[in-house]
Amino acid sequence: MTSHTSHSVTAVTVTGSPVLPYLYRPAEIAEALGVSEWWVKEQARQKRIPFTRPGGTYRFTAEHFQEIIRLFEERPTKGVREPEVGRQRSRRTEPRTSAESKRARLVPRVPRRMRLAQIAAAA
Prior knowledge:
Elements: E1 11-12, E2 20-21, H1 26-33, H2 37-45, H3 62-71, H4 98-102, H5 112-122
Antiparallel strand pairs: 1-2
Helix pairs in contact: 1-2
């Protein structure tokens, strides 16, 4: 088996055998995506991204990496409208339900200095 000292190697050759794919570690995938290693492992654990698990550790092929890129790709939607400036939505468009109208409204307390002033004025 040939050693792969550089990460640019995408396959490992074995004498008399077909070419084996290079398996990337979660840290390598995380660095390429600009996310944390934890995030890559969590996505794999929840089966949101493709992976292989030889020996109980998460590993990724170049095809897995390409699929991960495709999964999280965002494309613009057709007919995107510009937001209307200056238009505000009303606070409540539908009438209150009976359950909402029966709820007690909170009433603020009178500040202590005002209560003391009222007591002093009454005395």
